[in-house]
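Quick one before lunch.
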Amino acid sequence: MALDWTRFDTLDALSEALAERILGRLQAAIDARGRASLLVSGGSTPRPLFKRLSQTPFDWAHVQIALVDERWVTEDHPRANTRFLHETLLKGEAAAAEFIPMLRKAGDVFEVAGEVDGAYQALAFPFDVVLLGLGPDGHTASLFPGARGLEDAFSAPMDRLVMPIEAVPSDVTGDEVQRLTLTPTAIAEADWPVLMISGAEKAAIAEQAAMGDSSPFGRVVQLLDRPLSVYWAP
Ligand code: 6PG
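Model of the 6-phosphogluconic acid complex:
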């Protein structure tokens, strides 16, 4: 499947437009079924988007927020996406949203993933908005190339939302190779999956994937029954 590009001159302009579009989708979901689900990725790119969302008055009390992916670390770890979310999105106006945590206190990620999946079953499904990022190695969510658990994630049953991953260590993963990820199916089933990327390198990786490469991101794109929305800025 192809990509549906919306290009901006700056990351700020992108963030403003994407925040508006996301809130529009969440409002439509609240109108239709009384609540909405927003699944978000970590990484550096969404920071200005999260800041905008957190400052925008909205019916946040009817929004459930959860992560697309997380490192298997403690919540206060400097690279925990949970911590990043608390610092950027789950504050101000958006503090009224319900946050469904991905992290658990202890255990092996391959043993506790089922428990996290159980917690995610409380989210309004199909997810209304799933915000994806893209790594230089072609990963999206925690779907890292060659990872232990990758094929299980791609072949997980339809009703499974969260799977464990152990990435091959690289410059991209850093030391935290154990992760949790949304399943490719849960991403593909979303009402609006959207990729937010910045820079020429990411644009080229996305284009390559859309032509049918075997990267995890490319495989996710191929699962969609429509073009994936891509919001891009230099
Ligand atoms: C994470 C992120 C990660 C991210 C991409 C892109 O847990 O680190 O969720 O998967 O989306 O690596 O990151 P940047 O936005 O920093 O380029």
